[in-house]
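INFO  loader      accepted 1 record
INFO  loader      residues=134
INFO  predictor   begin
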Amino acid sequence: MHQRLRKAATMVTGALLLGLAGAPSAHAEGHKTTHIKRWSPGMESSRWEDKNLDSAKTTVKLSGCASDGGGGFQWARLTLYRNVKWGHDTKIKSITHKCGTYTWGDLPAGTYYFTLDGFGSGGLFWAKKVVIRW
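INFO  predictor   done
INFO  writer      dumping tokens
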């Protein structure tokens, strides 16, 4: 009886170790999902804190983009900033896309946000879904 229990315990332990060895690593330290409704150029997102506990890239993925300009949605320019406690916030980089994923790379620990700097046409911008990963 003890031999059967020992064999069963060994098999379970082996299966667990194999499962852990084959488990994928986490994709990102954090993320949040939100939306953009009726933004004009210059508006900014909420802030998030990246503790840089991993090597994940900071990304913002926009889907369902639209503007109130004629001719449909064309493009949007986002700029990522690092919040600075005293003084001016640090501009990381501006990226222009026709919706999709904006990628800024693996950034140092800090508090970040993005601004909508412009878009193709119209005065207001929407994105049905915004996923921020860091």
